[in-house]
Structure formats: structure tokens, C-alpha cells
Amino acid sequence: MGIYDKQNILSDKQAITASARSENVLKIGPGDFGQGNKLDLDVIVTEAFNTLTSLNVKVETDDDVAFGSPKELYNTGEVLLADLIVGYKFTIKGIPHGCEDYLALYYTVTGTDPTTGKIFAAPTPDTQDSDPSF
After folding, report:
1. pTM, 2 dp
2. How far apart are the first and last CA of the chain?
3. Are 47 and 84 in contact, with CB atoms under 8 Å apart?
4. Domains of the chain in sequence order
5. What percent of the chain has pLDDT over 90?
6. CB atoms closer than 10 angstroms to residue 107
7. What angle is formed at CA 27 by the lines to CA 90 and CA 96, rounded to 5 degrees?
8. What is the β-pairing status of strands 89-92 and 71-75?
């Protein structure tokens, strides 16, 4: 079982049925959190997706908790439906530089909105290789 701080989980087996922001936002600032800190983001499929063409995960930051004007820090690129099976990981090595006060993920669905598919996402000091099913 992976070791994750339950208070810092961005998506706790969040159902992705349309393009959406992570269910949780992390307060990480003020300051450039990515500067000199080694903290990865694990984004793991916990339920296989259906019907969509692809899914893209963006790391976003903003100085406003409501994310009125988010700044994109990282983009995973599109991952095709065939790869979005249980255990697939979008691992982001190191939170990118340029963080403002808050950090969130944004999941972009391409194609038909899925009726199945869930994501677990959380920061971790090192990439975990196990199931996040606490």
C-alpha cells in the first residue's frame, strides 16, 4: 500500500464523467513551492474508463482558491482510452516551478463523456508503486 497524506489528496477515487478540476485543492503557498522541493504527484486510474477518446491531466496553480485564473504548470498530454485501465499512472516527477498559493489538477475529457472511470491523485515524496486503496 502506498503512503499518502490523507489531508493532501487531490482526488480520492474521483469519478471523471466530464472535464473537471480535482475535487480538492491544496494550499501550498505563498511562494514558489516547486523551487528546491522534491515532491511528485501520483495520478492513478482506480476504475477503468469507458467511451471517451482520451484523457489529459493538467497541473494548475492560482493565487485564488476558486481558480478564477489558473496557470498551467504541466500537461501530461492525451492518454488514449485503451491505456486508461486500473493501475495506469500519470506520474508527474516533481511539482513544476511557478506555483502560486494553490495547486489543483484539471482532467480534460476528449470525445464522449465517460460513465465509468475514477482517479486517485496525491503528492508523494517518492513515486509509489502500490495500490492506493487504503
Report:
1. 0.86
2. 7
3. no
4. 6-122 (2.60.120.1110)
5. 66
6. 22
7. 40
8. unpaired
